[in-house]
Structures
1.
Amino acid sequence: MTDSILTMKGIVKDFNGVKALNGVDIEVARGEVHAICGENGAGKSTLMKVLSGVYPHGSFDGTITFDGKDVAYRSINDSERDGIVIIHQELALSPYLSIAENIFLGNENARAGVIDWNKTNLEASRLLARVGLDENPATKILELGVGKQQLVEIAKALSKQVKLLILDEPTAALNDDDSAHLLDLINHLRGQGITSIIISHKLKEIRRIADTVTVIRDGSTISSFPVEDTDDIETRIIRDMVGRPLDRQFPDRTPQIGEEKFRVEHWNAYHPVDTTRKVVDDVSFSVKAGEIVGFAGLMGAGRTELAMSIFGRSYGTHITGRMFKDGQEIQARTVDEAIKHGLAYATEDRKRYGLNLIGSITVNVSAAALGKLAKLGIIDRHREYAVAEEYRRAMNIRTSSVSALTGRLSGGNQQKVVLSKWIYSGPDVLILDEPTRGIDVGAKYEIYGIINELAAQGKAVIVISSELPELIGLCDRIYTIAEGRLTGEVARADASQENLMRYMTAARSEGATKS
Amino acid sequence: MTTTTPETARTTVPTEPGKPRRPRLRIDFRQYGILAALAVIIILFQILTEGRLLFPGNVNNLIQQNAYVLILAIGMVIVIIAGHIDLSVGSIVAVVGAIAGLAMQQWGLPWWSAVLLAVLAGALIGAWQGFWVAFVGIPAFIVTLAGMLVFRGFALVLLTGGTISGLPREFNAIGSGALPTVGMPDLVTLAIGAVVSIALVAQQLRTRATLRRLDLPRERAVSFWIKIGIAVAAIMYLCYLLSYNRGTPIILLILAALILIYSFVLNRTVFGRHVYAMGGNLFAAQMSGVKTRWVNFMIFVNMGLLAGLAGVVSTARAGSAVASAGSSFELDAIAAVFIGGAAVQGGVGTVVGAVIGGLVMGVLNQGLSILSVDAAWQQVIKGLVLLLAVAFDVYSKRRSGR
């Protein structure tokens, strides 16, 4: 048997009788990169919370052996002391403090409470060099992009003499370059004897860097096996995650495309703070009934800004341009007006803009269409409940009841609540911004099915996505956008990742001037 | 796999046959916890004061003395659910009291139009503050801190001549009067108690019948009847006590109406839902088409209106308008809301909870006064109770996960 740094055996954790974990076993060898895969809600995050002491020893069953001894962590501090550091999907850095201050936050180089700034900055630079981040340690976090912030988190972990680094969806918010850099770094740290656990939905990444993968499904360990960089491994992981072979990633669909449903002409929008910066630059496009149209673009290309400025001017200033629905010009100066005109926009950031996390599923589903449930301002709550219950069933939202708080749901199920909300608002034009971000393979397939169904009902569907295979698999037509301008329009038959990427990185051509 | 996407709701819920998946309604411990705390405090003081706490006269006083906090707490809970705070209500009480006093004494208005004028003035002040909060975007803490100074100042300006007393008897009755009585014990009060009890049972049974018809989750019959039994017993006991004193206080009727109306507004109306939605996640509410500015504006107009009403009630109870009236009322109201289980971050809270929170403070005041505890120590005790109540809430939230 190999030397293992971490062994978790028979972990069982239940919440009020609902078993989130039901007998998880995992064994991580010293110095390896160990991937954990599973659908949303499979129990990955819960498992990591058990390991790190967020759920204190005694609140779960099973044993944890770390570095040769049985451990009983009562808090994150306990596990960090042993060198276990978790980097969460939502980064936990203080935006107004510098890189150095963040790295040593809670662990300051101080004597008698007075911070030694020279030592702090010096050590911070050393750590930054180790993670390959070329920044001044005095730079404030808010000036860094997400990718660099991720590296600061890792530098912070290194400062704590980390032995086991746990990364929860580390590349979910990163672009390809930053992702590649991060994966190289994890590889590099492995060379220095640091063990990593990486939770990821991106099987390509797992193929590339993981030594071993453990698949969890419905709170139990399904399998654990060595990883090779082959397609077979990917197929096997998917099969174990969903419990059935997933031969097709996209459900079948025969497009039935009708008349033009929605058209935007010469749309312009400026940045809300830096009002001289043009974020959306003379964009014109159209969508037909029953058509699924994709918008491809790199981070910061202006896809979300375009969508939000169209949806009731919820982003940007000095917005100009015309909008037509069914050939009639429409005005949507507020979100309310946009909804009344049959537009819907499901945001890319569901926790921040999409859901009331301390509200029940019911109130979230009805939130955009309370008018349909109310007479004279009074809500028919029985009908509201019935509606929520109906969507729970139709969308397969996994929950004990529609009265459950949305904050307790997994990402995929939260996304289904967001979609339910907008479908119930009865839109003709749906804009879905990153509808499958942070969602596992099985739930993705379900969401694709829902999108197809919406198109089949004759709605115009716009999908914004960073995943090119998703756009190619789903859309009838794809627009590419770069620096706020449309740079290409590609029909499904002609679309390939290569040509889309070429348009997405197209430099500014003609006379588009920054005003 | 195919997915159907329902466009419109059918009125009946499709049920899976043979599979009674009917989640029992979970007891809301937040709310019942505070109710239990109120019961414990009442029993404790009943023992400590050797039964004097619930003397009919004391119960009457308890209601009349605390009416202003309860009215303010009803407005304040809405403000706090939406994620704001209002520090100005005490000053509004003072300035509105002054306006009412002047209206009757110097401008010669009849008492009822003075009342209308006062409530309207409160609503206008609320609109002023709502304008700054909702449309200019200044945090409510700052706007109402300014309002606290400004309106206290106006109260002092209006009442430079000192106190205005000798107000009409009808006006004073709003704060300290009672309905006409028939006999001893008062049959009117007992009759009101009986009617309210019957209405409560009927209403609860009707709701339950609807739930059964639609096959929605409902609580167990046993706990349903126990709860109703307790509620009816409490109502009848209160009426029994009041019937041995001066009958039904007018202010009790006003309060009951406000509690019913505002519970309905928060639970059943689109406006109420928007308030919760904004407190839960402001951005999500905006992106769902909630007109957040108007909702914020209306929240403050309503708070001003209720503060105006509280001003009328407290002036009527005192029988005179004083510039120092209402000082620290805002703190009592805020304390009542938080004791009543509202969340500091917003999004959570109920009218009934706020009222119970206000009663907890009221009973403490009353009990400690009967025991002749020094006023200084009373403050210490009330402060600690507030702290403990919120600490308990935070603790229980942490226990329940996350």
2.
Amino acid sequence: MLERPVYLLRRALRNMLQSPFLCAASVATVAVALTLIGFFAIIVVNIQLMTRDWSREVQVIAYLDVVPAESSLKGLIEEIAGHDHVQGVTYVSRQEAYERFAERLSQDADLLAGLEADFLPASLEISLREEFRTAEGVSTLVAALKQKKALSDLRYGQEWLERFEAFVRLLKVAGAVLGGFLLFAALFIVANTIKLTLYARRDELEIMALVGATPLFIKLPFLLEGALQGAVGGILALGGTFFLFHLFLQEGMSAVLLATGTSHIAFLPGFYQLAIVAGGALLGFAGSLVSLRKFVRL
Amino acid sequence: MIQLYGVTKAYQKDSSALNDITLKIDKGEFVYITGPSGAGKSTLMRLLYGAERPSRGQILVDGQNITRLPSSRLPFLRRRMGIVFQDFKLLVRRSVFENVAFPLEVQGRQRFEISKKVYQILKLVGLEHKLQRLPLELSGGEQQRVAIARALVVDPSVLLADEPTGNLDPEVTLEIMELFKVANARGSTVLLATHSREMMHHFPRRTIALEAGRLVGDITP
């Protein structure tokens, strides 16, 4: 029962051993193509993390002209926190507002000399749940907050938010276009390399057909070979990606990237690492399949 | 048995490689297909093993109409045939043993059966002492013997040979001819395309002559 699969696997392995140069060419092509895609994925993943960080700053600040009594303040906070868009509400008293301001002024804090500590209004900092950190989510919340008389003035950086959203949209489109292009280029290059390796072995394909091999019997070892080579290429690409990550993102570029406010640059998460190896196998398999169609007609 | 009825093969509209060929070859016969270059010998061979389909006419092999055979059934037709070429068509990276074993592997035979049959056939063609060699380490005559062994290992009902001695010197040609005679004696119908008069002189058999795609002679000595 197992004799056939074992035979096909043995043939695939022997084919690779018998033409190490062709095999290495396919593996290297997959490795280079996937290293580029992997490196690109690191950038995309980190931009995603960065924008998520930035979106934490999306919040609504409600100023309180008159600070209500503690019990009604508590009631107000609980009421706002009960809104389904709201993640949390922080009360900033006049004193705290003053201290923050002073801290921000740091060396110029003496400008505050002579001013009372209560010249700044108290406020509620209302943060939103991640899924509502959008222009639309904010305006829904603001509309609800406007119903409450205790809140005199609402600040929510609508303009900043719209620009931020446009920026994220642009990143997504650019990512999809570039990623799609890289993937297509990888498939094209891999398929062509495999086509060359098949071309070198077209005699073998012809002889197989002449002695009565079915197309499936001819193709299977080549498909298996393509998938194996692709998987090995994927593993190498993972190493290559890590090397590039270390070289450019950890050491070389870190100073530049830190300037954008990113404190830490992450390597690909486990799922992406697995996807690169699986993607390699798939790329090799698809490359072989596409190329074989031209060679195995009988 | 091989039967052809009005078989025409045209690659271009106004010239045909084979033109209205009708002939019958009985089971167990030994037949030469002869004629000058471009007469249509190779085309006839290619039609018989299904590499090409006729433009017109019908071809029957052992009663089966191969012109209507779906391409998925073609491999199974070829498993009953042995095919030998002028350029041997051996797998150069595989040993003599592996080359001869290949058709049996394709058919999914058991390993012990394969080893036994391959050894027997290599002994028949006199190469049992070279089974681990690679084809390119052998002489032309030896390579052709490997190719014949590969064709015979499946006990073919039909053995097709297209100019099998075209690349070999006269002495080796006679050795190879002996092998075809053995194959014929083992029960295979042999069709041998050649333009070597020497061969036909040494082993006179039924000779079908083609010229410019037409059947111009069918002589049985």
